[in-house]
């Protein structure tokens, strides 16, 4: 499963199309809540977004994730999405592995994410643990905050 760090407008458009299909169309998240200022290509700034794109072996874009700076030593992985037609085939795991690798390369030692409650088990299998006491709503969908130590550092992460 080829994955890449997006460097082109075409790659970014593919990531946004996957997110639009999954979050806006399938889950009914308002587009103005889904798309934000982090949806840009990095232009050399220190606090730049990293967009991950996963393709089928034939080259079709099917999954995406985004990594942004969160706190000292901590990255936030967001907007993890896999097209419905390609779920349960390892593409989400590939997107997460690429996102974590990118975060490590940028020097982050921890990752946090806000998992949809129905996806908590997926992230738990990848080594994330819940750090929020309460379930919270984001775009009308129940979420929990989860965290994982990527390298070194302390095991605890502020919720």
TrEMBL record:
Taxonomy, superkingdom: Bacteria
Pfam families per the record?
Acetyltransf_1
Q: Would the keyword Acyltransferase turn up in this protein's UniProt record?
A: yes
| Gene Ontology MF, one | acyltransferase activity, transferring groups other than amino-acyl groups
What InterPro entries is this protein classified in? Acyl_CoA_acyltransferase, Bact_Acetyltransf, GNAT_dom
**Where does the N-acetyltransferase domain start and stop, copy by copy?**
3-151
Q: Does the keyword Transferase apply?
A: yes
Query: What keywords would UniProt list here?
Result: Acyltransferase, Transferase
The protein's name in its UniProt record: Acetyltransferase
What is the species of this protein?
Alicyclobacillus cellulosilyticus
